[in-house]
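Handout, section B. The chain below has 516 residues.
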Amino acid sequence: MVQSPAIKADQKRPRGETLARFGQRIAFLGFFFYAIFAPHSIAGSEIALGIATSGWLIRTLALRKTGFRRSKLDAPIWLFFLWTVLSAIFSAEPRVSLLKLQSVCVFLVFYLTQAILTRRAAVVLVSIMILSGVAGAIWSAGELIRGRGVVVQSIVNDSPFLKIRTEADQTGRAFQDDTTRLVPGDTVWRVGGTRVSSVSEIDETIRKAPSDKLLAISVISNGEHAEWPGITITSSIQQKPSPSGIVGGGASHRFRASGWTRHYEYFAEILQLLTQLALGLACAHFLNHGLNRRCKLATIAAAILAFGIAFTAMRTVLVAFAIAACFLAWRSARRSGTRVVVIAAIAFFLGFGGVVVWQTRAAHALQLDDASASLRAQVASVAFSRILHHPVFGHGMDAMHLHWTEWGFPGIRLVHMHSTPLQIAFDRGLPALFIWIWLVVVCWRMAARAERLTRDSGDTNRHGLLLGASGALTGFFLSSLVNYNFGAGIVALAFWWLMGMVLVLSEDTSRPESST
C-alpha cells in the first residue's frame, strides 16, 4: 500500500513536535473563540481562554518550553501583583481581600497571549473581534428601534413592586433592609432572569416562581439600568388575577445599549478599544495604499463601533474615545487636510453621542448635574480623605463593603470609586497606583515606538494594529480616570490581551514566526 507524502511526513516528524503542533492549534482555537466572545460575555471569554490554556499546556509539555518572552513589562506586572498580595494581607478585612486575589490573576492572560500569538495570528484575531463588536453594535441599534420591556403606567396599592429589595441577604453585608419601588415611567424588562415584553408575561413569571423567595428583576429608570434581588413572592400574590399589580404597555426606547450583555459600561469600554484598533488599521492602509478595500472596510467598522459607543450613552467613554482618536489621527495623518477630515468625523460622533445622552439619561446629565455625577463626586471626596489613613498598603480589596457607613461613604448603596487610579490607591495603596501607571506608560511607549519603526516597513496590518493599540491604551487610561474599567472582569481580560498582542507585534521583524 502506497502512503501519501503527508502521512510519511508525519511519521518522520518527532512525536513531541506533532503533539506541540496539536497543542498550538488548540490554543489558537481558544483564542479564536475568545475573539468572538470578548465584547459580549465574560463566561464565554473565560471558557475560550481555558481552551487556549489547555492547548498551551499541551505544547509546553511537548516542547518543555513555555514560549514566554522577557520584556520591560515583566517588572511592573509582577511588582503590581506582589504589592496587591501584600495589601490583601495587611487589609482591614484580610479574609475578604485574600479571597479577592483570584480575580487579580487575570494578568496571566498577558503571558498566555504572548506565548501563543504570532503577528499573523494577531491580525486574524483582531479582525474577528472587530467583526464581533460590529455585530453587537448593530444588534444594539436594532434593539433600540424594537424597544425593551414594559413601560409602567400605574401600579395598584398592593403590588409587590412597591417594595423591591435592592440588597440580597448576604452575611456581613450591610443595608439588607434597603428597598425601593417602581414609579410610572419605569420599565420592567427582565423578571427572574427572563425577558418580558407584556404585563401578562410578568404575571405568568410570578405565578411560576417559587413562593416565599426573592424574584430578581431588571428595571430601566431614566435610561439607567438597575439589577435588583427583587420582590418577595407569596402564594397569596400568585393567586391574584394580576399578581404584578402593574398597568402598562408598550416597549421603552429610552435605554442604554449593551449589545448581548446587560452591562453598558463594559460594552462601551470594549467597543472603545475595538474602535481604536479599527481606526488604526484604516489610517495605516490609507497612509500606505490610499482608499483601498481594506481601508474602506476598516473605516466602516470603526464608524459602526463609534455609533455603538454613542448608543451606550457613556459620557466618559465618549470623551476618552474622541481624545484618543484625535491623537491617533494626528499621529498617523501626514497631510493637514486629512487630519481635519478625520477630526471633523470624530467631532460628529461626539456630538451625536451628546444627543443620545441628552435623550436617554436623566435631566442635566450633559451638564454633569445629575445624581450619578453627584454620587461620584461624593464618593471620590471620601476616598481621597481615607487614602491618607492607609497610604502604603491601602484598605484592602472589597474591605469597604463591610465599612461603608463607618468610613463615611454616602448613602446606603454599595458602589465602587468610579475611578481606576482612585480605587487602586484606596484598595492597594499609593505605591500600587504608581506601579500601575508605570505599567500603562511602558506598554504605551512600547506600542508607540514599534508603530513608528514599522511605519515604512511595508507591513501595513502590523503598523495599523500598533497604531490602533496606542490609541486604545490612550482611551483606556483616559476613561479609567473616571471609570473603574480595570475592575470589570471582561474589560480587564481585553486589557491584558491587548498588552500581550502589543508585545508580540513589537518584536523585531527578524524573529521568525511559528505556525498557528
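Note. The radius of gyration is 25 Å. Compare this with the example in section A.
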